[in-house]
């Protein structure tokens, strides 16, 4: 019995560590654009957020619920793009751990060129966050400016995942 408890504990620990990132990739706009284009066979949910943005933090639990629901679907992928500063990378890592973020998180270190890359993502994006862009087979299918509810997320994903 004692061995069984130890095995279950180890399995739980491995599962938790597997679910959370241990590092955050730091990318420029061009790298992110390539990553999006490489997801040709998926519905890709890309959420732009920051640890200091209250609406962003408020909506993240909804994103994690949805990510968990679809995590076994090979046609679904979620990426959380942090717009925190590079000097705040450790804060982002702590945030990932504390909030139990299971979707992939990357840090977009390209603040100086925001006026260049923001309109390339969406001409109507004014730069405010949170923003979520949905891509299907590498093509943008929906742009959401502002906080999203779990229901809104679910509707857009269900509509585009088929």
UniProtKB/TrEMBL annotation:
This is Thioredoxin-like. PROSITE patterns: THIOREDOXIN_1 (PS00194), THIOREDOXIN_2 (PS51352). Residues 1-19 form the signal peptide. InterPro entries: AhpC/TSA, Thioredoxin-like_sf, Thioredoxin_CS, Thioredoxin_domain, Thioredoxin_ResA/DsbE_sf. Keywords: Redox-active center, Signal. The lineage of its organism: Bacteria, Pseudomonadati, Bacteroidota, Flavobacteriia, Flavobacteriales. The keyword Signal applies. It comes from the Bacteria. Residues 8-162 form the Thioredoxin domain.
